[in-house]
Amino acid sequence: xxxxxxxxxxxxxxxxxxxxxxxxxxxxxxxxxxxxxxxxxxxxxxxxxxxxxxxxxxxxxxxxxxxxxxxxxxxxxxxxxxxxxxxxxxxxxxxxxxxxxxxxxxxxxxxxxxxxxxxxxxxxxxxxxxxxxxxxxxxxxxxxxxxxxxxxxxxxxxxxxxxxxxxxxxxxxxxxxxxxxxxxxxxxxxxxxxxxxxxxxxxxxxxxxxxxxxxxxxxxxxxxxxxxxxxxxxxxxxxxxxxxxxxxxxxxxxxxxxxxxxxxxxxxxxxxxxxxxxxxxxxxxxxxxxxxxxxxxxxxxxxxxxxxxxxxxxxxxxxxxxxxxxxxxxxxxxxxxxxxxxxxxxxxxxxxxxxxxxxxxxxxxxxxxxxxxxxxxxxxxxxxxxxxxxxxxxxxxxxxxxxxxxxxxxxxxxxxxxxxxxxxxxxxxxxxxxxxxxxxxxxxxxxxxxxxxxxxxxxxxxxxxxxxxxxxxxxxxxxxxxxxxxxxxxxxxx
Length: 494
Prior knowledge:
Layout: E1 14-18, E2 23-27, E3 44-45, H1 50-53, E4 58-64, E5 70-75, E6 78-79, E7 82-83, E8 87-90, E9 108-113, E10 119-123, E11 127-128, E12 131-132, E13 136-139, E14 163-166, E15 172-175, E16 186-189, E17 205-206, E18 210-215, E19 221-225, E20 229-230, E21 233-234, E22 238-241, E23 266-272, E24 278-285, E25 292-298, E26 313-314, E27 324-330, E28 336-341, E29 344-345, E30 348-349, E31 353-356, E32 372-384, E33 390-399, E34 407-408, E35 412-415, E36 425-430, E37 436-441, E38 447-453, E39 460-461, E40 470-476, E41 486-493
Antiparallel strand pairs: 1-2, 1-41, 3-6, 4-5, 5-8, 6-7, 9-10, 10-13, 11-12, 14-15, 15-16, 17-20, 18-19, 19-22, 20-21, 23-24, 24-25, 26-29, 27-28, 28-31, 29-30, 32-33, 33-34, 33-35, 36-37, 37-40, 38-39, 38-41
């Protein structure tokens, strides 16, 4: 039996930095399945250095049409290498569909498909495909604007639309954005875009946006977001409206309005369950608890499900490290795909993307490694295609997978469904300054050592040993390394 003092060597990737070529080449001792679909090439963003410009652009919404084509909305100036403003349609391989009349004069935040195939578009814009539309418009199935749908200036008076919901009777719910020193609002429109006079349109949401709108089968409406109060009454993150839009005072948000560290509870994603309960995602505290959570479950009666004890979400970006879930999707296999801004989930290295089972525990066979990296918002939208593959949009850069892991301002990727389970992954990258770095993501357990060698025999630690499941190490000036090159590995000690 192996004693605790002995070393356990698990080399799943050995990488070499060759100074003669001043470039990085990589060889892998064990082949690793990538989660990123290499056949889908749809980079979006702004021109320039991806490390500096990707945060000013992003994909905020994705919609798959019945024919498999993909409509994306966001804030970008190009997509798939072509000039494009904030709204575009892609073919199944990620290439731009030139037949789609693209473009708005402002960001697109939400897309929603109606049962008849028409597409609602909400954002902060004043024209859609060259036609005056303030904050919301509708497209026909062929992608051209629906001239019979016009909300006038109703939404535009609140800067635009940020979230969308569709009732079974065809009426449309629109949440407006919240800017500093303003309140958000919720409107209900008839099928032609005109305001529904039978709905309370005067509710005011304070602090941050309504992120999700979910009409329920009984006619009530569940709203989730970063708001902390509605009409001056405390409702952190969640509120329930009656069928006519009045606040249902019998429902009280289970989230803490004044959590530890003077932070705010927010719910940024909803995924409805088969029993009409909900999985909620965000960053929040349950009333009376000091434990911050990234996901939780609400029962059919919208009570907190105390039996759901998920893994924790953590991030190296904040102190204390709080991970944030910004997107939640229930996959057709019953598991949940979650996106956001986090680096660790339940002891596993998971960079802004994770799959969990019905109990909220990490699936070790769905691992993007360090591929989807972000310093801003991370993964904001997840959509399942008919073949089960997942489209992920947001504000992130994606490593190319070439021997030199060059970052690119992607913001949009397609994910495969399976990777190797619970392995250690290593990536070599190069910053725009020429600085090389090594990133390793490790399976949970033991103490991890990031080591370097010039001869594959003698290995030395290049960082302090750590129980954290990831490393980031700047290699330094390649010219200072021996001509034979430098090799890197991760070693575990149990």
